[in-house]
Specification:
single chain; mainly alpha; 2 domains; two-stranded antiparallel ribbon; 13 helices; 2 strands; globular; signal
Length: 381
Amino acid sequence: MLSYKTVLLALLCTSSLAIPVHKAREVPQEHSHQSILTSVTASLAKNNPAGILDPVFGLLGDAAAAQGKGSISDVECLQQAVADQAFTNAKAAGDVQGQVDALIYRALERNTGTVGGVSNPCTSIQAVNPEIAAISQHQDPASTNAAAVNKAIVLTLAQQIASVGGDPQDALKSGTFAPGNVGDSTGKGNTCDDANDATGCIFTQNLLVPDATADEINAAVGGSAAPAASQAPATGEAAETTAAAAAAAATTAAAAATTAQAAATTAASTSSSSGNFGDFGSCSVPQIEFATGFDGRKETSFQPLDKTSYNHGSADNINIITQFMCDALVNTCGADATAKATCASAQAAAAAATPETGIDADIFNAAFGIQTASRFSASRA
């Protein structure tokens, strides 16, 4: 396999891919999380049927990504495709850390053309692994509502890491940099890119800005923190014991997450709270459904999951539902300030997502620590 330096040097020397120095964009950051990239490269190498040249291409902008996409038809889905295949390979090998790193890789920020630019979600290809399907990439920290969007992504990532027996706190490793200046004509931003830093310069230079707190991560996975999966592998009976323990931890984490989600639909007659997301008073934790057939509709639409707490019919526009639910917290539920603020952030994050695809509902729900995969259970008619 060609080295990163060889591949990227070849790309940058190609006139069609050369980056004009005057163009306003963040400086490259494909190697900022190098340890994650290295792990995914090793996992992908086990079986790479699409012939993807290198996982680093999944983190490049569209034009450059196209040069290494192999047979993947949509460059906007290349990052997901890399993560999906790497996860599959790591799972087949019983490599928990490999699975964790594939999940983290899926959540890394892709390069965009400008400081504050937003990369599009993958909509044309469905991931084979639901753990990968549940995750989207980080957005430029200077983009609109980036803090809320990226926080929701990290909380969902933590749930998926816990489900495979990893340490959910590792989700914070997917974080990006401090916001750059959108008006900076140099496009420098706050980034780093060093392929020679085996750990990743965002870590060694202390440039990573956490998207959530450790307590918020624990709340998102139901208060469960699975043991780290980065320890040296055991052998013989010890290996069997370790594997059994990891499986048990994964089962416990998954059950905890399921319990947390079930609690979100508690009857409105009881007071509901969700860790650091706030106290929702007499209402349940806000959650939105996206599917076909609500209120006799033939097309997909959105509606509150709990109609007792949030009595509103379905709507084509998610903003109608999020606005109603957030208003209900203020007007009828008796929610506290934290819950209201969480809902406002969730509403903004959903509004910034690709409209009417279901991912906007997933992002809204994730802001309350609830994992859903609406965009893969229904397609927009």
